[in-house]
Amino acid sequence: MSLTQETYGELRDIAARYPQPRSGLLPMLHLVQSVEGRVTPEGIEACAEILELTAAEVSGVATFYTMYKRKPVGDYHVGVCTNTLCAVMGGDLIFERLKEHLDVGNDETTEDAPGLKSITLEHVECNAACDYAPVMMVNWEFMDNMTPQSATQLVDDLRAGNEVHSTRGPKLCTWREAERVLAGFPDGLADEGPSAGPASLAGREIARERGWTAPSSDASGSTGETADTKTEAVEQADTSRAETETEQEKADG
User: Over the stretch 137-193, which tens digit does the pLDDT of each residue have?
Assistant: First the structure.
């Protein structure tokens, strides 16, 4: 499909948000994906034209980041974390089960079937949610503490068009709808669902119980001088950390 004039207008609107228009390239590529299901040659040319870049420069960005796809993505993008912790907690088993269940390989999409939504399955690197391993993501929304059984139920519900809610976020929308949000066009669901769970907040609760607080600038041992070099910055940080740990040991003792 071709980009409409409305999409071109929205691409220009994104570029206009920034003092340097080229800073808008990342959300612009997300908008292209929301319309075309992937980053297309036409989308690359449109971004290049608006930002006064070459197509090669835009393509270099689009091929660098894994969230930009050069092949069509299904109605839902399902990512299974297979990095170390998630893998040993069951992520590898989940991924293998889903490949078999959906009859697809990595970065492949289920075949179109009447009455069923399509799913693109991909193994992904760390989702930065190790406290809930093994973790999956659907259109970049978290699905925590997964098992092979809950994972297969999840994709079955998605394919059937059932309403599914992420563990720490809103109800799941389609991949194209999620891409439009990433382009900077809110869908009104930002405040739906919890933003954090107990495991993520455990450290904060322990700090409250024990009266731990971050050191103030006056108590940090800093001379108030700004580091002029990287080495000075590291030395200041090490000194502040050591003094804070000493004070804490005295308080605990």
Answer: 999 999 999 999 999 999 999 999 999 999 988 899 999 999 999 999 998 887 787
Residue whose pair of structure tokens reads 């920034």 in the numeric block: 18
- Which residue type, as a one-letter code, is found at position 108? E
Cα dihedral 157, 163, 165, 166 sign? positive
Q: Which one, of 94, 93, 122, lies nearest residue 110 by Cα?
A: 122
C-beta separation of 145 from 132 below 8 A: yes
How many angstroms separate the CA atoms of 130 and 14, rounded?
33
| Cα–Cα dist 79/182, whole Å | 17
pTM reported for the whole predicted model? 0.78
Q: Tell me if 118 sits within 8 A of 112, measured CB to CB.
A: yes
Q: Is 36 helix (H, G, I), strand (E, B) or coil?
A: helix
Q: If we measure between CA atoms, which residue out of 98, 172, 82 comes closest to residue 135?
A: 82
